[in-house]
# Entry
Amino acid sequence: MDYDVAVIGSGPGGYVAAIRAAQLGAKVVLIEKDKLGGVCLHKGCIPTKTLLKSAQKWQELQRCSDFGLRAEHIGFDYTLIQKRIMQVTEQIQKGIAQLVKSNRIMLKEGRAALNGSQQISVALGERVEEITAEHILLATGSSAMTLPVEGSTLPGVITSEQLLQLPEVPRSLAVIGAGAVGIEFAAIWQAFGCKVTVVERMPSILPNMDDEIVKRMALLLRKQGITMLTNTAVAKIKQTGDGLLVMAAKDGTVQEIPAEKVLVSVGRKPVVEGFGLDTAGVAYDHRGIKVDEHMETSVKGIYAIGDATGTYMWAHAASAMAMAAADHACGKQVSVNNTAIPGCIYTTPEIATVGLTEQAALSQGKKIKISKFNFAANGKAVSMGETDGLVKMIADKQTDKILGMHIIGAHASDLIMEGALAIRNGLTARHIGHTIHPHPSLSETLMECAHGIYGPVIHQAPAPAARQRS
# Structure
């Protein structure tokens, strides 16, 4: 065998799997067809969040008078913003490259395909190298789904990856699809002065999120100036002299939405074609590669992780799957625990969620308690000028064990880990409520929300104890 472990794909699943296997003593090769770090680093998570930070800074500058500050002749240079995005991605890529090198992982830059359960062909420029590995990990990621309507291939109808490459902020943007990616980009471009219209065929934005959180977010987005059209289906996209025209139908009425650019954000699909899965006998379908609790496929010794499995399409989920797969490949009996995978949406304010929504808990027949605490009643949030927010906690009616936590507000993506830890370890509301939280801090919103599960809340107007549902 040339290698103990071969990893195809170097995103947050692939490179983590390679490093973990190397740490366990395996001889590892990491194969990447494009850039080390994958889509997340170069076309997704990192550039998007870097752009978002610039948008947030711009918004803060515009309302600096609220904090007793004066700034005149302010503006932004989108070319410099793009330059910073490149600097950030390059810095992180160099860090990953150093980790790969220091763990003595062989990096091959080429396109890989399976030739069997332990054979891989790697196209390296004009030559093809054949390698063998006792274990193979597939981290092939996902790609943007297309929109099956007339006009979807017109110039100016773009994906999120192409949107990040625009040389300037468009005057107007129509976003088709109100999932996490669509809503994030809508918020970012609106902050830079772009006129944004979001079109969603479902009754509400952000499917699978807690209804109450979604309603609050929709109100805030409209308040920020974004036009939201739900229960609306795109029938056609037309080219006009001034740009594009989205024909959107609702209740039998067609509305015309003019836009300089149209972002198609209707979801992502696993990349399963072109990697020799059929040749190797790996079971898969359009929803992704089939795996067990150890991330092993139908072929012993071949594993699949991350978006390629079509399950939890979050970078952090891919990394967790990577650790489990690498451990199992190296002889450890490890599986992925999916009970507490947090999901985050990086809007302003942020949304973060973990565990069961209220709707999911009730549909499963659970008897629950619900407590809520507003950011407006938190001293740190008030001092920050970030009072738009809410913590919602769902607990078992009899045991007070935390079943779900949902946050909309500043730093929600950081705060949600308290909920993830609670659910992962079977903690109760009392475990959170009886833990002393620092003051002033946003974390106090979680403590006080927990208080509401089993008794009264200090910094909120008197109300019945936790609302009970069954």
Q: What stands out?
A: The mean pLDDT is 95. DSSP finds 14 helices and 25 strands in the chain.
